[in-house]
Amino acid sequence: MRFSDIKNHLGKFSVGIAGTGGLGSNCAVALARSGIGKLIIADFDIVEPMNLTRQYYFRDQTGMHKTAALKETINRIDNDIKVVAHQLKLDRENIPNVFKDCDIIVEAFDQTEMKEMLIETVQKSMPSTTLIIGSGMAGWGKNDLLRSRKIDDSLYVCGDELTEVSEHLPPMAPRVGIVALMQANLVIEILMERKEMTSS
Questions:
Q1: Would you say 32 and 123 are in contact if contact means Cβ atoms under 8 Å apart?
Q2: I want to staple 96 with a disulfide (CB 3.0 to 4.6 A). Which of 54, 125, 141, 197 is the partner?
Q3: What pLDDT score was predicted for residue 200?
Q4: Which of 130, 150, 132, 140 is nearest to 178 (CA)?
């Protein structure tokens, strides 16, 4: 299959990105480069100098809202991709509305409680929407431990599911980037299998 055919197919789908830090920004850019038609991104944070070690931002974007900076970057890559940016903190009440048009949602939070909240909310309020989460990517090395795993029909996880971020085991660009790209690759794999959508 030629890339033009792949892009034509992926262009019919919408993907939500919950959080635009290390996982979310890198995953969103990979999906944009692959031809996803619409990205719905949500975060409340701003770009800080410390983010530049692993997040897909640039020095001249520091001080900007992450969603605005990421939208700007994606538009520079491909301005045909529709990016809907929500500058807010996601919670149980707004998640179903923010991501209501998404075929797949990618979880990209730092905090465990936020991850759990998103999983519970999507499974309760949006049970037919596929959710891909990240878990276990701190530190460096150990490539062989990173994997993607199907938990059930609508829930997948990428990472080693073990390595938690700590003061002495920080999140670093290579491992965070690998997991973000695993998430993006899984999004594409799932959507490419949805051939029935090509005629709609």
A1: no
A2: 125
A3: 37
A4: 140
Range of the domain at 53: 3-199
Coil, helix or strand at residue 14: strand
d(CA 165, CA 109): 12
Tokens at 51, concatenated: 């983010």
Tokens 């029935």 belong to which residue? Answer: 196
DSSP 3-state percent helix, strand, coil across the chain (nearest 5): 45, 20, 35
pLDDT digits (tens, 9 = 90+) for 92-112: 999 999 999 999 999 999 888
The residue behind tokens 């998404």 is: 102
In the chain, the number of structural domains is 1
The domain spanning residue 56 has which CATH number? 3.40.50.720
161: left (phi over 0), alpha (psi -120 to 50) or beta: left
User: Which one-letter amino acid corresponds to residue 63?
Assistant: G
